[in-house]
């Protein structure tokens, strides 16, 4: 094409751009122009010409406090009179100290800049870490991107930073791009524009200048401008449609800064072979004249090989139309070169004055007309606020992308039918990932494939063969790792979760095509691991859409929406609670442990379907031999009534197999022989309005009366009564268990294990139950709490179902819920080391009880009872309670009907505060209520003798669980109640709710 025709074509195409009216950026709109001009003119008039030249330089400075570095800063600020500083990598505190030092030397406050595309952490190792741009590109809600930009702006202001070299508006259409890649929001120009503008508006809303980069577009390059000068060899039409579009949208939005890239773009400047940063055709003619950009123009780093070796670099950069020069090598030399070019009249004085005045106006807008000092007090806390953490989590949660789900597996259902295996590929440790999965279900097998000099495996891969559901977390794009992963998944259709760049997924093309579901988390850190795992199980839904195309696999914009279906795990602020208020729980727990109210505990709080507090404190014992973890089991004592017997009765009621007004004798034939017991209804038993005594004395049944003389118990200690079993209650030291009922060895006769080295005859539970059926209830049927009511209900359940209640619950409730840590007889499947001890029983069982029920009635009936004997942890119990809050549904499965839940949780006795099996707040007598005063009347729950409690608040969509072993080492320890620990913690929970 002849030269003149090409020039005319460029001109016509540039004129065809959508040209906004010339206007100053939005940051000028709130400024008092008269005051600004007064300050600018005053400062400008006080400056020497060299000082005006110095304002054009933004020099790079290391973040270290050495004398040598401080001397370099002094030289830059006092000798060269520079306009700004770009700090490199370091720590928050060090940068603030250097900022204060630098500003103290400056006669005109310095413009402190940040190359923080994803916030401070891009340069400062201890700053809050936000997701990278490609992750953010998956988010469909741009208001979150604005909030993110606003938070970055707030943090910049707190750090004394005035300019952030962000957003990246490069459209990354080249998957082999070595320098942009995941720094871009994606490959769709309009989406990149929307994300970039939202981010920039957020930054500028906090009074910090945003700087879009790398004009005119660095996305479609296969070379790195840090190392060479890349060429963008596209036609004008293509540039207009792709590369330039986000920058034009940014300009039209009235945003303030632009960084010019070191890119050779022949279609925009076909003759000079200069990078865009040094090209008048691109920086001046196109950007500022044709596209009407009136903001501040920065070069990209001039130390980069894309520009650094070009002769007359600074002169060319100024004449091209840049306002400020970023990080030139040998700045003193470059400063002198610029002065010489001015002296030689290659650069007019007027141009320097125009640039200096423009920079001073922006300094005024950015608050640099005032003294600059940044306080170090509470600096880390101010940067790492709960709101910051909440935003990080929201961004990650909103980005998780389900790319395929061929059989609608996600979120996973029917957990009781799944044997789950986990493969972690490319990371030796993936605790966050695996632990979060463990919050939802049992993991049957774990295998890790990780790269060293040769790929290796850890874990028992043979166990994977028995797993019917494989979840593969992918942290590496190494071919060797991928090959091992493929071998491990042979014959299976795995669920794949990628913690790598979308482009790197191609390594796993064969595995992807055989996968049942594919999830993309974009990057690898604790939070992405946690939220990806939650998406698999419905703790969170999925809304992300992949922002780039993965050739032959996925197209930009792909993403399947998923809805939450189970409890999620997050921080209090996400559901409108205050973490600082909740932190007061720590002091109450500390008080309890120090006063030996309990050696350790688990506390869980869930609100609006999200677990926002799930912590363990202390240890199993006061010696601190085993710190409590969230997966450890506690003997939950009478919580068994509410967490075992009630769910079983609810299931049967839901299936019309039991009626609340039906007599128990209908389901327990033995009761027909007792005319008083015969009249007791199911509802009577649930309300504790049967007239039955609290317990049946176990001692006369199991103690051999021939082994001692005198009474079995006394209220005072003496030589024969030195075994304390309760407060002011002592047992005869000679009393022994009946030899016809008990043995220390297992045999055909003594086949029922009730403690370590203690066995009884299989008929003992029936003997005890028969004793219960012969009790004559009192005529007074007012409320009297009795464990016997729930033993009767247990028997009714077992007679109706034809199976022990523990088996019925495991099959129908616990396993389907994923509550695999909830069980009777825990030692059959859980290590003794993972179960909190209860009492040191020096009388009957002569041992510290671990994994066997503390409650004697439950223990001597074989460990499975309707009143006690269940073991669990707080996380498991929360699933059951949330199912009730969800009106009978959990994990997209309906366990009981909404009607059934309402009947059992809303029906109240007219004789007491009790509900149907549940305890309730005592609104009329708050001092005697088991809950705090703030708990509304709709709350239901239960407490347990061993130091346990849970409360469900449907009005506030709130769960509170407290588990401890306060009876360790002895049951007469009442400090938990004396200190009112459980209600006080509950009160804090209500106070933390932001209303």
Automatic annotation (TrEMBL):
Domain Glycoside hydrolase family 3 N-terminal: 50-361
EC number assigned by the record: 3.2.1.52
Pfam families: Beta-lactamase, Glyco_hydro_3
Transmembrane segments: none
Beta-lactamase-related domain boundaries: 585-969
Protein family membership: Belongs to the glycosyl hydrolase 3 family.
This protein's name: beta-N-acetylhexosaminidase
Biological source species: Coprobacter tertius
């Amino acid at each position: 094409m002849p030269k003149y025709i090409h020039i005319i074509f460029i001109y016509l195409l540039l004129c065809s751009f959508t040209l906004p009216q010339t206007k100053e950026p939005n940051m000028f709109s709130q400024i008092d122009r008269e005051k600004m001009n007064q300050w600018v003119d005053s400062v400008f008039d006080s400056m020497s010409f060299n000082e005006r030249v110095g304002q054009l330089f933004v020099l790079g400075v290391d973040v270290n406090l050495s004398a040598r570095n401080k001397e370099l800063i002094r030289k830059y600020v006092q000798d060269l009179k520079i306009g700004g500083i770009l700090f490199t990598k370091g720590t928050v505190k060090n940068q603030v100290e250097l900022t204060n030092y630098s500003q103290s030397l400056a006669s005109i406050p310095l413009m402190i800049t940040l190359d923080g595309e994803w916030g401070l952490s891009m340069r400062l190792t201890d700053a809050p870490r936000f997701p990278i741009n490609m992750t953010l590109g998956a988010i469909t809600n741009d208001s979150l991107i604005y909030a993110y930009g606003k938070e970055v702006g707030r943090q910049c202001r707190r750090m004394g930073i005035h300019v952030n070299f962000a957003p990246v508006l490069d459209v990354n259409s080249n998957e082999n791009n070595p320098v942009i890649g995941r720094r871009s929001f994606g490959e769709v120009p309009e989406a990149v524009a929307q994300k970039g503008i939202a981010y920039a508006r957020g930054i500028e809303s906090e009074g910090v200048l945003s700087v879009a980069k790398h004009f005119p577009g660095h996305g479609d390059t296969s070379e790195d401008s840090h190392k060479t000068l890349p060429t963008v060899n596209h036609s004008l039409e293509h540039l207009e449609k792709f590369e330039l579009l986000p920058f034009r949208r940014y300009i039209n939005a009235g945003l303030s800064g632009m960084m010019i890239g070191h890119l050779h773009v022949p279609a925009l400047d076909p003759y000079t072979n200069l990078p865009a940063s040094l090209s008048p055709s691109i920086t001046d003619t196109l950007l500022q004249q044709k596209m009407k950009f009136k903001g501040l123009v920065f070069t990209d780093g001039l130390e980069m090989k894309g520009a650094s070796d070009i002769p007359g670099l600074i002169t060319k950069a100024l004449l091209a139309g840049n306002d400020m020069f970023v990080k030139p090598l040998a700045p003193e030399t470059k400063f002198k070169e610029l002065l010489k070019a001015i002296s030689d009249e290659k650069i007019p004085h007027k141009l320097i004055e125009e640039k200096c005045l423009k920079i001073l106006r922006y300094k005024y807008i950015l608050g640099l007309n005032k003294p600059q000092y940044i306080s170090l007090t509470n600096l880390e806390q101010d940067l790492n606020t709960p709101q910051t953490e909440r935003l990080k989590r929201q961004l990650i949660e909103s980005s998780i992308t389900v790319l395929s789900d061929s059989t609608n597996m996600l979120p996973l259902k029917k957990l009781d039918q799944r044997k789950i295996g986990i493969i972690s590929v490319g990371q030796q440790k993936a605790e966050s990932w695996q632990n979060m999965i463990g919050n939802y279900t049992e993991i049957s097998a774990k295998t890790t494939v990780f790269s060293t000099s040769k790929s290796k495996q850890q874990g028992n891969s043979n166990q994977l063969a028995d797993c019917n559901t494989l979840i593969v977390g992918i942290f590496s794009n190494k071919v060797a790792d991928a090959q091992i992963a493929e071998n491990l998944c042979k014959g299976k259709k795995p669920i794949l979760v990628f913690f790598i760049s979308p482009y790197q997924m191609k390594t796993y093309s064969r595995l992807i095509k055989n996968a049942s579901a594919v999830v993309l988390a974009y990057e690898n850190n604790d939070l992405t691991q946690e939220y990806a795992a939650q998406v698999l199980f419905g703790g969170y839904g999925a809304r992300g859409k992949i922002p780039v195309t993965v050739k032959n696999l996925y197209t930009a914009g792909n993403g399947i929406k998923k809805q939450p279906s189970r409890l999620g795990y997050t921080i209090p602020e996400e559901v409108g609670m205050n973490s600082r208020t909740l932190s007061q729980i720590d002091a109450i727990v500390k008080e309890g442990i120090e006063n030996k109210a309990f050696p350790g505990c688990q506390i869980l709080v869930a609100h609006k379907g999200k677990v926002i507090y799930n912590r363990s404190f202390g240890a199993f014992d006061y010696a601190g031999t085993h710190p409590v973890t969230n997966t450890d089991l506690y003997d939950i004592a009478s919580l068994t009534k509410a967490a075992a017997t009630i769910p079983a009765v609810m299931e049967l009621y839901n299936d019309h197999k039991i009626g609340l007004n039906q007599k128990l004798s209908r389901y327990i034939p033995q009761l027909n022989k007792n005319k008083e017991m015969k009249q007791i209804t199911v509802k009577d038993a649930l309300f504790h309005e049967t007239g039955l005594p609290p317990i049946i004395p176990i001692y006369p049944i199991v103690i051999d009366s021939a082994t001692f003389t005198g009474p079995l118990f006394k209220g005072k200690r003496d030589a024969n009564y030195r075994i304390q079993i309760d407060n002011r209650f002592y047992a005869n030291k000679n009393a022994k268990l009946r030899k016809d009922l008990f043995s220390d060895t297992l045999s055909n006769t003594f086949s029922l294990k009730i403690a370590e080295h203690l066995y009884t005859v299989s008929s003992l539970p029936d003997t005890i139950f028969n004793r219960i059926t012969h009790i004559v209830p009192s005529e007074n049927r007012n409320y009297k709490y009795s464990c016997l009511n729930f033993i009767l209900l247990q028997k009714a359940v077992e007679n109706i179902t034809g199976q022990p209640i523990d088996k019925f619950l495991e099959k129908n409730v616990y396993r389907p819920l994923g509550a695999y840590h909830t069980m009777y007889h825990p030692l059959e499947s859980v290590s003794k080391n993972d179960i909190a001890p209860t009492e040191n029983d020096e009388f009957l069982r002569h041992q510290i009880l671990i994994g066997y029920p503390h409650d004697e009635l439950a223990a001597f009936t074989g460990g499975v009872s309707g009143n006690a004997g269940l073991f669990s942890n707080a996380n498991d119990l929360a699933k059951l309670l949330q199912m009730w809050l969800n009106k009978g549904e959990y994990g997209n499965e309906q366990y009981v009907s909404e009607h059934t839940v309402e009947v059992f949780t809303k029906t109240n006795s007219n004789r007491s505060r009790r509900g149907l099996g549940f305890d309730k707040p005592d609104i009329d007598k708050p001092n005697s209520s088991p809950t705090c005063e703030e708990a509304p009347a709709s709350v239901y729950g239960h407490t347990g003798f061993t130091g346990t409690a849970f409360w469900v608040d449907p009005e506030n969509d709130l769960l509170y669980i407290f588990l401890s072993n306060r009876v360790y080492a002895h049951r007469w320890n009442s400090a938990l109640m004396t200190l009112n620990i459980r209600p006080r913690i509950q009160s804090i929970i209500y106070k933390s709710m932001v209303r």
